[in-house]
Design a protein that fits this description.
Order of helices and strands: EHEHH
Strand order of the largest sheet: 1-2
Radius of gyration: 21 Å
Strand content: 5-15%
Distance between the termini: 16 Å
Length: about 90
């Protein structure tokens, strides 16, 4: 379930900050600094990363070859997809 419409895990809105320069740069003047918004990590990837962390923490060195790595990462995304579907069923965005 590759979903390009998945919500972001850690979005940040754009904002304007008031900053003060060091005295030697502008004489210590205050100025407005625009910070652009960031989408953040895709929520599906966030779920998969956390699932993968838990699986690897309990793997007991069973993950030693490429097939095992591929299998455990695919399983992480399968579980993440299930979590995304559960969110949709509950009406979460």
């Amino acid at each position: 379930m590759s979903d390009n419409n998945a919500p972001s895990a850690f979005p940040t809105p754009s904002r304007t900050e008031l900053r003060n320069t060091p005295p030697q740069a502008r004489g210590g003047a205050w100025y407005e600094h625009h910070v652009p918004s960031k989408e953040g990590m895709d929520l599906r990837d966030y779920f998969a990363a956390n699932i993968l962390t838990g699986l690897l923490a309990n793997a007991h060195n069973d993950v030693k070859d490429n097939d095992a790595v591929r299998s455990i990462t695919e399983f992480s995304y399968d579980l993440a997809d299930a979590m995304m579907l559960a969110r949709q069923k509950r009406g979460a965005e």
